[in-house]
Amino acid sequence: MPTVVTRFAPSPTGHLHIGGARTAIFCWLLARHYGGRFHLRIEDTDLLRSRQEYTDSILASMRWLGLDWDGDLTYQTQRTALYNQYVDKLLAEGKAYWCSCTPEEVEAMREEARAKGLKPRYNGCCREKGLGPAEGRCVRLKTPLTGKVVFDDLVKGTIAVDVAELDDMVIRRADGMPTYNMAVVVDDHDMGISYVIRGDDHVSNTPRQIVIYEALGLPVPRFGHVPMILGPDRQKLSKRHGARAVIEYQQDGLLPQALLNYLVRLGWSHGNQELFSLEELVSYFDGSSLNPAAAAFDPAKLEWCNAHYMRELPLEELAALTAPFVEAAGLGTVESTQLVELCRMFRERAGNLKALAESFRPLLVPANQLVHAEKDAAKHFTEAGKAHLRALADIFANCADFDAASLETALHGYVEGNGLKFKEVAPPLRTALMGYMGGAHLPEIMAFLGREECLARLRRVAA
Ligand code: GLU
């Protein structure tokens, strides 16, 4: 089998979005599965909208997702001379021609076709004029007049387009710049790309690109057009659906392996399996089982997937990843063993690292800054509740050891020794310690806080 070479070709006109990221993942996996190569090409020919900061951001997102690329990065703006060599070749072979029609004239032709109920198109006016280069002239391809372009799409199956539907497309604009379709064909050939996997918003470009390959006498790669990701309401995906740029998920504290796992399942399957290690993905992803039907984005499932990876991660690693979020939440620098302990207590309860860091807040602020949730305080800081807190403060003040096991014994000793029920004592205690009716196992919370901080919290409420 020849080497599988894929590429991801983003336009740096915005951050990497989940649709683009999924395409990149598919391309990367296919190359890695077959032990081939994966290239990254920056399609920056739209000078007005392309920005270096977006290229940097796309690269950062690719690195964060672990999608490493082979060889150097390619920038289309640095390759104009190469594209023009191919345009010149087509001109020299009589497969392309100079066209002097002005944009207004071309628009008039389109209008005329529309008026006749035909597809708007350039009418081939300069095709046989034998014009040479001159200011304001573009170069057009002599698209064959009859026949079909047929290709076997990896996702959509066989696609056939009548060439009569394609007009003589511009391959070099009047300003000397090659057009998008021309540049892509030259690049994909020059980079040895054997599989072009991209969003199906490009499917209408493919027959045009194939016509260019054929005019140049070049082998045509295999194409695969993946359907767009839709919102849960099956409308075009947008911010309103909770869809965001990869960098925003990173800022929210999603784990890259969770986002990758989630995205790969949007449009690809391996039986009913939902969670995959990277090794499994590389081993299973062979370009088959790509779903031709559009998948819908489901933020809840993404969070579920992330929670899974948060549970799977070694605690030390989770703590190290959470540390910057703790700092960003204004909770200061927490010593690493403490952070590990916090992660252990709270990781089951958070869907992302930002929420996890935030869940530590009640345990990291001093007693006098702990905020009591109004509803919980009103319900549990009753006279009886406060009496329990006073009694417990005395017990905890005298506990020989302040570890979770000793505190558990002391707490149960108080409850049982006084013929009480745990649910009479735990809620005021929990609200006094955490500020609300949530959090982890009470003895563990107390052990984490330490004696002084615990007593301060109980006495603040029950003094
Ligand atoms: N630059 C194009 C885009 O960002 C991709 C073109 C391609 O993959 O051929 O949509």
Set down the secondary structure blueprint.
Layout (H helix, E strand, L loop, with lengths): L4 E4 L9 H16 L3 E6 L9 H14 L8 E2 L4 H13 L3 E4 L3 H13 L22 E4 L6 E6 L3 E6 L7 E3 L7 H11 L4 E5 L5 H12 L5 E5 L2 E2 L15 H7 L3 H10 L12 H7 L10 E2 L2 H14 L2 H14 L7 H11 L6 H7 L1 H4 L9 H7 L2 H16 L5 H14 L4 H13 L7 H8 L1 H12 L1
Parallel strand pairs: 1-2, 2-3, 9-10, 11-12
Antiparallel strand pairs: 4-5, 5-8, 6-7
The structure holds glutamic acid.
The site of glutamic acid has 7 residues, from loops.
How much beta, percentage-wise? 5-15%
CATH architecture of the largest domain: 3-Layer(aba) Sandwich
Rg result: 31 Å
Largest sheet: 3 strands, parallel
Tell me the CATH superfamily of the largest domain. Answer: HUPs
Helix content: 40-55%
CATH class (first level) name of the largest domain: Alpha Beta
**Biggest sheet, strands in spatial order?**
1-2-3
Topology, number of strands = 12
Distinct bound molecules: glutamic acid
Query: Given the structure, what is the number of helices?
Result: 20
Structural class by sheet pairing and helices: mainly alpha
Q: Report how far apart the termini are.
A: 79 Å
Q: How many distinct domains? A: 4
Overall geometric form: elongated
The low-confidence parts are none
- The CATH topology annotation of the largest domain reads as Rossmann fold
Average residue-wise pLDDT = 96
